[in-house]
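User: Is it possible to get a 3D structure for a protein together with its bound compound? The compound here is zinc ion. I've pasted both below.
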Amino acid sequence: MAELRREPITRMWVVITTDNPKGPSDYLSYKPPYQRLDETGTCPFCPGNEGMTPKETFSLSCNGGGWSVRVIPNKFPFFRIEGEFDRRPAGMYDVMEAIGAHEIVVEAPEHHQNLATQEHSQIEKILFAYRERMIDLERDPRFQQFLIMKNYPGVFNRHPHSHILAMPVIPRRIDEEILGTLDYYQRKERCLFCDLIKEEISMKKRVVLETAHFLVFSPFASRFPFETWIIPKIHSPDFHHIQEEAMEDLSVVIQSLFIRYSKLLDDPPYSLTFHTSPIQSQFHRPEYHWHIEIRLRIGLREGFEWGTGFFVNPTPPEDATAYLRGIE
Ligand SMILES: [Zn+2]
Ligand SMILES: [Zn+2]
Ligand SMILES: [Zn+2]
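Assistant: Yes, that's possible. Here is the predicted structure of the complex:
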C-alpha cells in the first residue's frame, strides 16, 4: 500500500509507503563509503593553518584567544564574485556568467565536531556568522538569492563547515515555493506557511518539537525518510532579519534535533538548507516565510526519483515524528 501526497507549496507528488514502514534499524546498515574515511594530510580549516585559505571575510574570536567561527571565500566556488552579470543566448539556450559569492563557514576550531556534539552557544555563533555575512552581501545589487547549505559529513573535508551562497538567479526550488505561496496568498490572503504551522500544531502528530519561536516538524508529504523542517512561528520572509532571542532559541532547537538524529540513526549523513526570500526590492517576497529543510542521506532510491521526478518515502512522516519524539 502506498499513498500519494501532494506537497502544498510546490505541488509535487510524493509516494508514502504505509505498508511495512521502515524504522531506524532498516537504515543502520547504510554507510556511505566516505563516512569512515581516515584523515590524512593537513586540514586547511584547523587552527594554525589559516595561511592555507583565502583571507577571512568574518570571524568571531574566542575568550581564550584564537577564533571560534571563521568565514572564508571558497577556493573552489560554485559562483565567483568577480566579473559582470552577462546573460546571453547560445543557440536555443541561455547562458549567464556564474557571478555570485561562495563562502565557507568554518563552524568550530575543533576538527571532530558536529551539530550533535557542539554546544548550542557555538551553534548560535554559526547562525550569527550567517546573518552578518548575509547583511553584508545583500548590499551587492547583483545578488538575488541566498542559500545556506551544509553537507554532513563534508564531501571533501570532515572539519565542520557550511556554505553561504549569494546567487545571481533564483533557483527552481525557491521559485516553485514562491509560486505556491503567492497562489495561496491570492486565494486566501493568508500565508501558506503560517496556516501550515497552525495546522500542524493543532494536529500534533507530525510535531517533533515546539519552542517559543520555532516549530520542528515532519512535513505531511515528506520526500525523504526523517525529512524535518524548522520554521519560525512568527511570519518572516528573511532569515537574516532574525533577532538575537530567536537566534538563541534556534541554536537550542538545532542541537536538540541533531542529537535525536545521531542517537536514533547512529550519526547519519545529512544535508541541510535554509530557504529564505529573494533579496533586492524588485525580487523580495514579503509573502514568503523562511525555514530550514533537513534531509538525511539514507535509504535513497535515486534512480527512480531521477527517472520520474517523484519521490518514494518508505517511512511515513508520522512514524518519523514518533521516533524523533521518543528521544529526549
Ligand atoms: Zn580541521
Ligand atoms: Zn508566514
Ligand atoms: Zn523550502
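The longest helix spans residues 244-265. The radius of gyration is 20 Å.
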